[in-house]
Design brief:
Strand order of the largest sheet: 9-10-11-12-14-13
Oligomer: single chain
Number of domains: 2
Structural class: alpha/beta
Shape: globular
Largest sheet: 6 strands, mixed
Helix content: 40-55%
Radius of gyration: 22 Å
């Protein structure tokens, strides 16, 4: 079991300044484990809302929760969404002596309920799978192949990891999606998810996918939104600049977990991955997730023009623009696209992330940087 220090610090800060903290993320990403680690040295009361005895304890929630002090944890709160209204009443009472930490698998209804009912009272903390900062720089190959879900990454063998991911995909489609109140046949969603894996790292094209599946543009768009809201997929939005070039305005689509991507692409191990045509886009998505988890920027975009110039990631930090380009290459060099992005977007600096070991400059404002050392990126300290 890995100690996720950074997330524990974020929880400490959030529970101190907000009466309600919502820890959100996909199933099996480690929310409950993190919460139990967090309360080891604290006065806390834990409710598992999927447990029948705990559900019975909360038959009169306002009475039971209102009498508690310290930290109160409500796990799997999406099973009892009516508790959000109770929490609003409790935290507004002057005599309230409790802070609440609610855990839930991401869903549109959960975020909507928390945002509307607890407006001004709740702080959201997002939890994903393991990152390089938690597993260590030397584990990047294993993390890339298996993904960051704890049971997949920590499995004893590649076969065990793959079996867990296959089970997760089946459970997600057959149980989790229906529990969100979404009535989509598991076979149809699996087909869409598998097709989307082949578009990983590409600009979203609803018309092309809808034709392939024999569905309407609106339907495939709704499927994409479901996978996005459940933290399976990331839609990276485009950056617009007032320039003469025609710019791409559709989002790019990435799988947030490389292990699930590889399962849907029938990639079993590193040897198979390195020989697959999607290895470059897989590496790009993996690297982007690592840098977004490391930096947690408030704003992140990609940029592209129909003329071919593009930049994988634009980050706004302290009012300045920084660029990130990802290359699956042993010795990346400056490209015309990088030069164009520097000039047009007025970037403060551009980093090129690659799988090598050494950093080196390729120009005054462009530095090649090892992905394994993403936590040492100078931007983190600026």
């Amino acid at each position: 079991m890995l100690l996720r220090k950074d997330h524990l610090e974020r929880l400490e800060t959030a529970t101190r300044r907000s009466p309600v903290t919502a820890l959100l993320g996909p199933r099996q990403c480690g929310k409950t484990t993190l919460a139990r680690q967090f309360i080891e040295d604290k006065t806390a009361t834990f409710f598992d809302l999927e447990s029948l005895p705990d559900q019975r304890r909360l038959q009169n929630p306002e009475l039971v929760l209102g009498a508690l002090e310290g930290l109160v944890i409500l796990d799997e709160i999406q099973t009892l969404p009516e508790l959000f209204q109770v929490l609003r009443v409790l935290v507004d009472r002057p005599e309230n002596k409790a802070r609440f930490l609610v855990l839930g698998s991401a869903s549109p209804a959960l975020v909507k309920n928390a945002s509307e009912t607890l407006a001004g009272r709740v702080e959201f903390v997002e939890l994903s799978g393991f990152s390089l900062s938690e597993t260590g720089a030397d584990t990047w190959r294993q993390l890339w192949v298996r993904g960051g879900f704890p049971r997949s990454f920590l499995a004893e063998s590649e076969e065990d990891s793959l079996a867990w991911r296959e089970g997760f995909i089946r459970t997600f489609l057959e149980r989790d999606i229906p529990q969100l109140g979404i009535s989509i046949p598991a076979a149809a969603m699996r087909r869409f998810w598998t097709m989307l894996a082949h578009y990983h790292g590409q600009t979203w094209n609803a018309a092309e996918l809808s034709r392939s599946m024999g569905l309407s543009d609106k339907t495939v768009r709704s499927y994409l939104d479901i996978l996005t809201s459940t933290f399976m997929v990331r839609q990276l939005q485009p950056w617009y600049e007032n320039i003469s070039k025609r710019q791409v305005k559709a989002p790019k689509v990435y799988f947030r977990d490389s292990g699930l991507l590889h399962s849907l692409l029938d990639i079993h191990d590193q040897h198979t991955l390195l020989g697959n045509p999607k290895v470059g886009s897989s590496w790009e998505g993996f690297a982007l997730e690592q840098i977004l988890q490391a930096l947690r920027p408030s704003q992140a975009y990609y940029w592209g023009t129909y003329g071919g110039a593009e930049l994988d990631l634009i980050i706004i930090h302290s009012g300045k623009r920084y660029g990130v380009e990802v290359k699956f290459n042993e010795a990346p060099r400056m490209t015309p696209s990088m030069r164009t992005a520097l000039q047009i977007l007025d970037l403060e600096h551009l980093w090129v992330l690659y799988p090598g070991q050494h950093e080196y400059p390729v120009s005054e404002r462009i530095t090649v940087w090892p992905l394994a050392r993403v936590m040492e990126l100078p931007l983190r300290n600026q």
